[in-house]
Each structure stands twice: as structure tokens, then as C-alpha cells.
Amino acid sequence: MLERLDAPRDGVPPVVSDVATLEKVIDAFAAGTGPVAVDAERASGHRYGQRAFLVQLRREGAGTALIDPVALPDLSGLNAVIAGAEWVLHAASQDLPCLHEVGLIPTLVFDTELGARLAGYPRVGLAAMVEELLGLSLAKEHSAVDWSTRPLPEPWLRYAALDVEVLVDLREAVSAELTRQGKLDWALEEFAAVAATPPPAPRVDPWRRTSGMHRVRDRRRLAAVRELWQTRDAIARQRDLSPGRVLGDAAIIEAALAMPTTQSGLIALPAFNGRGARRYARQWTEAVARARSFADSDLPPQHLPSEGPPPPRVWAERDAAAAARLAASRASMGELAAELTMPVENLVSPDTVRRLSWSPPDEITPETVRARLSAAGARPWQITLIADRLAETLQTPAPDPSEDDPKA
Question: What is the pTM of this model?
Fold first, then answer.
């Protein structure tokens, strides 16, 4: 039976929100030993952007610290005393960008979620892993709350403190399992890559990721999506709200498809039934009007130019040999991933397999494939496991058309 973890062993510490108290935390963590458990809470479903609204840390000899990064936006002083230690995070790639914004930048990471994936666990969420490996029940009912709330309620702080309470113990359990499976060195290469990855650059045309874009089939309606998205983004940024709380993606797509000419026509659309949809009806109407007024030369292209291969669904028609290479490579990588008990995307990036299959080296050998994999960012452990297999599957011949011709 699982033991329910209801309260941190040292109690819930007060939130650190002033420089004097932060200095004491810095001194305590400088004197602490061993890994540093780190977590961050965002309010992405409530506030604009992905910034942190609470940072939690724990270290042997220092205890747990809950820090308000709104009141203390520069934590580089704390970073200076812990940067050389191993940081233990769960799903590090989710938290590192917002930690980077406040000056917390690790050099050595142990990602318990990524380690669990490599070890083949089917459920890799923090609560699931704590149950599986530590026999503890960790409440997660506050994971989606608005962490920008001030003051933060005590039950939320208890939840936040418990997240870092278990991380180092979970790290030891995941490390032991990776060692048992002979995968620890692979995991350490992955963790090093995570720590070395810079914060993501801004996306080109982020409005193209609006849910439902596949329904928009002409450039003028694309322009309407762009104008509506950018209007929503400006309002959300100004009001510090999650864009979806201002206007849902479904409303943007519906308005772009209908292209209403009046405000009354716009708010009569079924998706325009929320408070934000009606509150800013004039701005939405003006956005659609701008899209209507653009010259054809000012309309966005239907698709952004891409250096990568086309969608695999069209490969058979465009390049039957490439389609055969992709099918063989995918099958081989899937078989190997199953043998290794890990998700195939952790063995090799699907995009890398697509690019190699569409445009293989002129001379396909294990050496040339290794070079291409390395240039694509594959880690040494991955290259060792997959290069020879891909060198074989990339030589898969195109199917013989006569085999599909009943008259042949």
C-alpha cells in the first residue's frame, strides 16, 4: 500500500521575497552538500508567457527554499553557489527556460523524467514515478492553479515543497535502474545535451500554430488568422493574460473562415460566446477588415519555405525510393527501440530519420551516416546504436512498379 506524502519533513518554509532573506538562503545552499533539487511553477494557463512565479530548491544541509521570482527577479547570486552542483529536475526542458530568465543556469543536470523514459517506464509523470519507485503517493491537485496568486495559499506551498522533497531520492532510484539496464552512460549524455541547449528562439510566424489551421485554405483567410492572432497577442500581453483566456483558437479560425464584415456579424458566430470575445469585438472586427483590405502581394504565403523534406504522406508519389527508405528505417528504429525498451523518439529524432531518408549521403556507409547523425545533433550513444542499421535501411531499393501491375 502506498504511503501518502502530505507534508514536507521540515514543514513548509516561508516564501523568500526580500534580498536579506535571499542572502541567508544563498549562504545555506553554499554550505549544503550534494545535488540540488530544483523545480519551478508557472501560470501559463492564466498569465502571459512562461515565466516562473515560484522557484523551489532543496539541498542536503540547506533544507528547502521557496523563492518568489517576481519579487526577486535576479537569482544569479544563488546560481553562483550552486551552478557547479548537479541539479535534479523532472522534465528539465520545461523548467530550464523560465529558470534561465531569473539567472538560474545549471552546468550539470539529472532529469528524472528523461531518465525514466530511457529506462522504459510507461508513465513518467512525477507522481507516477514517485509511486512506482518510492512507494509514495504524491498529491498533484494544485499543478494547474494560478501560481501568480499572491499571497500563495499554504496548501499550494506544501505541494510545491513536496515536489523537491522527493527529487533526490527519485534521482537515486532512476539512476539505479538505468545502471541495472546498462543505460546510465546514455542518460548522462542526454542530460548533458539538455543542460547545453540554449533557450528556444522565438518561432517564425507563431500564429501558424493556431489550432485548426488545416481548415484555412486560402491566403486572405490566412491573413485574417494572422491579424486576429496578433491582435489577441497584443491584448494578452498588455493585460498579462494567457491568450486563450482572451480569445480561443476556435474563434480565430471561425472568424477567419467567415470573414464577417460587421461587428454584429462577428459576435453572432457560435465561437464568439466568451467574455473576451465580446469585450474586444471591435478589435476583432478591425482585424478581419485589415485582412480584407490587404493587396494580394501583402498576403502571407500559404506555407513557409522549408529546408526539410515534404510531408511523408506525399513521398510515395514524389520519390518512391525515398518512401521505401523511410518505411524501412522507421521499422528498423522501431524494432531497436522496442528491444531497448525505450520510446523510439529517444533513440533517434524522427526528423533526423526523415531527412536522412529523403536525402541520404551520396555514398551510404556507416561512416557517412555517422557523420550525418552527428551533424544533426545525435549523441554518441545513439550514433553507436543506430548508424549501422540506418546505413543498411538507407540502401532499400524503390519498389518495382511491375509488382503492382496486374498485367505485368
Answer: 0.93
